[in-house]
Amino acid sequence: MPILDIQKRARELGRIRIGQVVPTTNGKTRPEKLDRFRLTSNSKALLEKVADLYGGSVAEWQPQGGGSKAWEVVTTSNRLPIMVPPQPITQWYEFWTAGGCKHRCDGRTNVLTDELCEPEDHGHQEALKRPTTRLNVVLRDVEGVGVWRLETHGWNAAVELPDAAEFLAAAGGYVNGWVSLEPRTSKAEVPDRKNGGMKIETRNFMVPIIEIDVTPAQLMAGHGRIAAPALAGGPVVDAPALAAAGPDYADLAADATTAEEVKGVWRLANEAGHMTQGLSDHLQQRAAELTAPAQVSTPPTAAASDADGVVDAEVVDESAPENDDAADAVWNQILKQAGERGLGLSELSDDFKTRMGGLIPDDASLGELQDYLAQVKDVAA
Hints:
disordered N terminus, 10 helices, alpha+beta
């Protein structure tokens, strides 16, 4: 049983970003929006896998406001395959300074002080200009037990993302989907500083959205939950229901002679917006046929510092890297056992909760993972 006054949370592996900081001609820096995703993490190995799947190259990165050096990759993709966990969204009005978060409220109550907000307070007024929406997702094709966090301060995302995420969470369990960047345009009347008066200004921007491969009715009927993947491998089916549009990606993958060529097909379908869960699974299995499986060791957790012009001082998981590596190694053994028992990820998660008193794998410690592994080995014996 968990401690009642300590809230569980999934380990954060890294951040999904839609902007970056660039130098200016006067020697300073400024934030710049991107039309593709940028990912940051303390784990170079994880980002190398990200770059392999979604394009770009891994580079060393220094977070704004100090902090230890980490790694980043600016991908070539504006669409990433994800799993949406239960309760994925948090939203607050926030005001930050170099000293940290000074005001965080829901519009009425400052949760930092547990007092009603003062309407004339400078911190409250500044916070109301900046809705902060944080979305936690699992990158479907990247190793690691934990979540990646996307943070946005846009009004469109603040209105749209929570509704979509809560709808998916209502389906129960983890749900397959996609996080995408959708281009938007708006017009606004602004002062004309050159000629005086007012003028119409057109603004182009990107909004993160969540998509799924099934209809809402199918999702509520249970079809959108995590499918049972072939954890123990298996042959690729001859005629899977794959992409609904575009080239015959399955045929392209069948002609591939190396795993790298299959990954190229994956990127082609993803960037064209034709990727589906069936196609992703099919291409991954095809790539596995062309290469020997590699042992993956997931490095330690990502830094909690935000570096797109915002100083983020949220609490970071301080577990030792050695324990993280050991936990990931045990989890890989659990996945192997699950494959041998014919369990998919959804069934494995349910079995874990049943045996471990409601505990989910993401929140399990090294000792708890080892305890579960010992239990299933006893059953197998």
